[in-house]
Amino acid sequence: MAIAKAERLMNLALCLLGTRRPLSKRELRGSIEAYLEAGNDDSFNRMFERDKDDLRELGLVIETVENLDGEVGYLARRDSNHLPPLTLDAEEAAALGLAAKVWQQARLAGAASGALHKLRAAGMPEDVDPYESHGALEPRIPAHEASFEPLMLACRDRRPVVFDYRKATAARPEQRHVEPWALECWRGHWYLAGWDRDRQAERVFRLSRITGKVRSRTGRFTAPVPDVVTVRETVAGWAGETADRSALIRLRAGAGYPLRAKAASVRELGDGWDELEIPYGHGLDAWLVEFGPDVVVLEPAELRADVVDRLRAVAKD
After folding, report:
1. What is the four-CA torsion angle of 39, 13, 10, 112, rounded to 10 degrees?
2. Phi, psi dihedral angles at 208 (to 5 degrees)
């Protein structure tokens, strides 16, 4: 069945690319054997519409033209379906491979594979393997959260969503109505940036704290969508990338290597503990909680209090 459909799609594409004038459904049905074998007009119409949508999904530009008699015809002009040669360096190919792996983990392997096939057809060299690692360390961006795929599609289609979200300091999740802007990965975690309709303000949500299903809603966005650079800065600020102060913590020896990489100074205290000075910005308390008993906040007092509150909220659960 798969081979028969592929052959049918190929024949339809060749007909549409090979004609200089629009072809009607009647003419296409008489030119393609699979359409001639369709049981009735309804079966043919359903088959043709599916095939046309499939070809467009594959990237073929199909025009719909109505003649003077009101009859609708179809054609695919060669100049509209011509792509310039593509050249990718090793870094660009590696970035494509990394993106494709993200889609594979998000149950979008078919779309990722199709995109790479299109790139090959457009001229990407055969000796460039986007899936191949191009260094001693292979970067990975996991996307295991069930909410990743529906949120990605909602960002793409500009659809409002509703989901239950549990803040790190809350005992129970609460419903959030959000206009999703973009998904960003930071420190191995995925974040959604968007407009919170209930709070009438931009907010950032960590996907691992979304509970239950993400549900789409009808209607248009009510707030303007910022450019992608602004969204990235928003995620970085909420997740703790922007730091304007320093914090002093105790860290168990041999633990917390991401914290050590950010530290401005490290001093051995003995008894299996080190003292670190690290950048302090919004979201640092949530990050420190992830290291559990391996981290003790010394100062400032407000950061220590925030971490203690988060740990108490987790302990109550």
Report:
1. -110
2. -70, -15
- Predicted confidence at residue 120, as pLDDT, reads 53
Residue 225 is given by DSSP the state: P
Q: Is residue 91 very low, low, confident or very high in pLDDT (cuts 50, 70, 90)? A: low
| CA distance readout (Å), 210 to 2, 130, 175, 197 | 38, 32, 10, 17
What's this model's pTM, rounded to 2 decimal places? 0.45
| Identity of residue 151 | L
Give the residue among 230, 186, 231, 234 at the shortest CA–CA distance from 207. Answer: 186
Name the helix (H) or strand (E) containing 27.
helix 25-31
Cα distances from 9 to residues 57, 73, 117, 243, in angstroms, run 12, 17, 16, 55
Q: Which sign does the torsion angle of CA 262, 268, 272, 274 carry?
A: negative
Q: How far apart, in whole angstroms, are the C-alpha atoms of residue 29 and residue 187? A: 55
Q: Are 303 and 289 in contact (CB under 8 A)?
A: no
Give the 3-state secondary structure of residue 156. Answer: helix
Q: What is the pLDDT of residue 133?
A: 47
Which of 15, 314, 315 lies closest to 167 in space, CA to CA? Answer: 314
Is 158:139 a contact under the CB 8 Å cutoff? no
Which DSSP state fits 101? Answer: H
- Rg over alpha carbons for the chain, rounded to the nearest Å, is 27
Q: Which helix (H) or strand (E) holds 213?
A: strand 210-216
CB-based contact 208:166 (threshold 8 Å): no
CA distances from 158 to 207, 210, 274 (A): 18, 19, 47
User: Coil, helix or strand for 256?
Assistant: coil
